[in-house]
């Protein structure tokens, strides 16, 4: 029941999701704003307990995510398409990658590209090492935290969501990822609990990130003397302007707002990257990147499994960096996962995983090497340690770093512009994702809902920023990552079960006794093999041979008390026989006229009769479950009857097996209407 129905306000919100979510979100934000120190203190105790005593859960979970995705990418399951077998991608590769990248990292790249390497480099824990070793460690750990492991977290959620949404035609919702395990229970309270958790986690993650992004923008504008100081008043003005732009972008939809901004931003990011690479210590950067890749590959497994249990002096650093990052990426994964799933319809699993794991990781490595290693080089050779001293001020560190490059003011404006666009795309895509969760992926929602999400983000982030409650909310977000890491492991179990069934379903072969041709009428068949059909002859075959075969089948089905129907279309010519069922999918076998372009080599071949036109037609079979059909022009009437019956026999055999229930249920197409 819609919660706004009684007030005659059109809404697509689902009360079982939106009411408990709003109570929890607003309640936590109010407590964090009114009692920031007490709340942050209590949540920090819980967070520290988890990081110290249960960090191994994060380590093992992230490791399993990486192994699972690499295996899926390399296996035959990688050929499965995220959608129907004939579906095509909704976006070009460049637009898809741009949007994926903007949602996955966004502001974080600008905030930490200089700050993280410098903080590792200047950390007292590594003070006993030489400057060269500290620089190598800084690059290695930055690669580790922003590399394959981070994107594997996003990839697992995104893949599960895209697969169950587009392959099973379930809602683009986390509850759908449990269908092989919970079946129709996901429609009830269990599904609502999962979506409430996802909505709250998404809201908290976006709110804290936007809050920190506003502080960095304010700091940059002060550096450029555009604003006189960093104060709550100016931060309020910044939020008001940027959230308004984000709402405007969200209202225009993904195909316009987010897509255009993401494409613009990725170009701006590449321009900034090339500028720093060209005018910074270029030779040093290229050499350190090359060496850094080798060190990362050589250290991959030791980094992955290292819990620092034998190194007490680095354990606190491990909790504050690696475990915090894993928790942070996991807490963000519902938001990023839903968004990248939304833009990935039509991609194969191999294409999805390789793009999500490898391409963003490689770009992150290049980005972090250019900015982080430039900062370290400037610190050691020009700044006389000044950047190291500023490492604990990440808000202004990027702009201080730019002081050591030519055209400082111009590049600073470019950096602020990039941060602003990342801010808008993060808020924009966040609004879309939260509305999608709260409405069970409603395709069309009233604009006031989009505006409402934007206003809620702005008001609560400013309230927490003013009261000093962002730290408490960040701790809350990190705590929720623990249960969600277990949920993600269940996603893998569910997805594995579904992929096995999927592969077996589409690769199930026919028995040897179903081959229809015995060798009769071989002269006629040879004549058909070496001839080409035009549209008229193909349509005539469908109207005569196919129709006669289907009519005889219709009669015999009726004799055996099976209710069948014949449907036909004239443009293009097609005939199908359908057997309807109430609980399972209908059985459909059809034949349609299909055009095909003939190659010039075949047209000019003297040893074949050839065709006078480069476009020929042939009768192609098709099926209700969207398996690929084939040319049936060589079939006689009886052979065509035999072919229909072998598919019907296969259909009966499949529906008799309980494990195929999720593929054959007729309710699958209308499950959440």
UniProtKB/TrEMBL annotation:
It is found in: Cell membrane. It comes from the Bacteria. It is a multi-pass membrane protein. It comes from Chryseobacterium taihuense. Belongs to the BCCT transporter (TC 2.A.15) family. The chain crosses the membrane at residues 12-35, 55-72, 93-114, 143-166, 193-212, 232-254, 266-286, 323-343, 355-378, 410-433, 453-473, 479-500. The keyword Flavoprotein does not apply. The lineage of its organism: Bacteria, Pseudomonadati, Bacteroidota, Flavobacteriia, Flavobacteriales. NCBIfam families: bcct. Keywords: Cell membrane, Membrane, Transmembrane, Transmembrane helix, Transport. PANTHER family: HIGH-AFFINITY CHOLINE TRANSPORT PROTEIN (PTHR30047:SF7), HIGH-AFFINITY CHOLINE TRANSPORT PROTEIN-RELATED (PTHR30047). This is Choline/glycine/proline betaine transport protein. PROSITE patterns: BCCT.
């Amino acid at each position: 029941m819609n919660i706004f129905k009684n007030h005659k306000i059109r809404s697509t919100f689902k009360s079982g999701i939106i009411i408990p979510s709003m109570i929890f979100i607003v309640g936590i934000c109010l407590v964090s704003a009114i009692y920031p120190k007490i709340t942050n203190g209590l949540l920090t105790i819980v967070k520290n307990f988890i990081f110290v005593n249960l960090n191994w859960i994060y380590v093992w979970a992230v490791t399993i995510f990486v192994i699972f995705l690499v295996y899926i990418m390399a296996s035959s399951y990688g050929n499965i398409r995220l959608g129907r077998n004939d579906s095509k991608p909704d976006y070009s590769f460049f637009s898809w990658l741009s949007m994926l990248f903007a949602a996955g990292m966004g502001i974080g790249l600008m905030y930490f590209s200089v700050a993280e390497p410098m903080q590792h480099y200047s950390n007292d824990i590594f003070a006993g090492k030489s400057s060269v070793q500290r620089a190598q460690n800084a690059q290695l750990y930055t690669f580790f935290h922003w590399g394959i492991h981070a994107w594997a977290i996003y990839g697992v959620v995104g893949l599960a969501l895209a697969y169950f949404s587009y392959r099973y035609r379930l809602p683009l919702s986390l509850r759908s990822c449990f269908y092989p395990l919970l079946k129709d229970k996901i429609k009830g309270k269990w599904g609502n609990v999962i979506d409430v958790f996802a909505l709250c986690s998404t809201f908290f993650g976006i709110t804290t990130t936007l809050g920190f992004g506003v502080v960095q923008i304010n700091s940059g504008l002060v550096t450029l003397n555009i604003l006189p100081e960093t104060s709550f008043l100016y931060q309020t003005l910044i939020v008001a302007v940027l959230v308004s732009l984000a709402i405007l972008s969200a209202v225009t939809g993904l195909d316009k707002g987010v897509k255009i901004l993401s494409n613009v931003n990725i170009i701006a990011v590449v321009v900034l990257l090339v500028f720093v690479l060209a005018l910074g210590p270029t030779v040093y950067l290229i050499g350190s990147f090359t060496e850094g890749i080798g060190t990362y590959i050589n250290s991959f497994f030791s980094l992955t499994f290292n819990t620092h249990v034998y190194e007490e002096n680095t354990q606190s650093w491990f909790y504050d960096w690696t475990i915090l990052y894993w928790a942070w990426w996991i807490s963000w994964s519902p938001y990023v996962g839903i968004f990248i799933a939304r833009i990935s319809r039509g991609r194969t699993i191999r294409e999805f995983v390789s793009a999500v794991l490898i391409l963003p990781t490689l770009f992150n490595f290049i980005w972090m090497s250019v900015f982080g290693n430039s900062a370290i080089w400037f610190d050691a050779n020009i700044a006389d340690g000044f950047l190291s001293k500023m490492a604990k001020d990440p808000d202004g560190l990027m702009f201080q770093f730019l002081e050591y490059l030519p055209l400082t003011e111009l590049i600073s404006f470019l950096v602020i512009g990039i941060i602003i666009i990342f801010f808008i795309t993060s808020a924009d895509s966040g609004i879309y994702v939260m509305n999608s969760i709260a409405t069970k992926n409603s395709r069309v929602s009233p604009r006031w809902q989009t505006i409402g999400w934007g206003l809620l983000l702005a008001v609560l982030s400013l309230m927490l920023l003013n009261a000093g409650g962002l730290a408490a909310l960040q701790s809350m977000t990190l705590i929720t990552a623990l249960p969600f890491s277990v949920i993600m492991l269940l996603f893998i179990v569910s997805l594995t079960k579904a992929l096995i069934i999927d592969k077996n379903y589409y690769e199930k072969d026919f028995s040897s006794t179903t081959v229809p041709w015995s060798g009769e009428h071989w002269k006629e068949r040879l004549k058909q093999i070496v001839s080409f059909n035009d549209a008229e002859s193909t349509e005539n075959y469908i109207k005569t041979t196919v129709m006669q075969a289907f009519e005889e089948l219709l009669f015999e089905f009726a004799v055996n008390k099976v209710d069948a129907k014949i449907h036909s279309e004239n443009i293009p010519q097609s005939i199908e026989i359908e057997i309807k069922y109430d609980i399972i999918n209908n059985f459909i076998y059809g034949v349609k006229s299909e055009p095909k372009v003939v190659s010039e080599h075949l047209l000019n071949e003297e040893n074949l009769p050839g065709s006078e036109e480069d476009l020929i037609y042939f009768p192609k079979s098709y099926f209700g479950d969207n398996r690929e059909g084939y040319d049936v022009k060589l079939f006689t009437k009886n052979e065509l009857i035999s072919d229909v019956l072998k598919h019907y026999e296969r259909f009966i055999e499949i529906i008799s097996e309980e494990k195929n229930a999720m593929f054959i249920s007729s309710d699958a197409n209308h499950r959440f209407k």
